[in-house]
Design brief:
With 95 residues, the protein is mainly alpha-helical. The protein has a domain of 48 residues. The chain has four helices and no strands. The longest helix has 14 residues.
Length: 95
């Protein structure tokens, strides 16, 4: 059985650890930034701790960046309960 991840320790298992952090913070939501967001989301799609990352972003109300595969605008459209329910049903789901 895998050890339970203590709050914050999920980051050491994040798929983005070897990726330039700037990728996850597009400058806008248009043009080239859309391509950048898609690339960041592709990294998130294969992440083992995507749920923990998204939960952190929702809990701490991160206004910017791609967290758990969602942009700030996408996170604002979802309530934490709806996002958590969707991931509980299918951890590989995209929102």
């Amino acid at each position: 059985m895998a050890p339970r991840l203590i709050e914050g320790n999920w980051r050491v298992r994040a798929a983005c650890q070897s990726t330039d952090p700037d990728l996850f913070f597009p400058a806008s939501s248009t043009g080239k930034s859309l391509e950048q967001a898609a690339e960041a989301k592709a990294v998130c799609a294969h992440c083992l701790v995507r749920r923990q990352c998204l939960a952190f972003a929702l809990r701490t109300r991160q206004p910017h960046g791609i967290w758990g595969g969602l942009t700030g605008d996408e996170r604002n459209l979802k309530t934490p309960d709806r996002v958590a329910d969707r991931f509980a049903r299918n951890p590989a789901a995209t929102v």
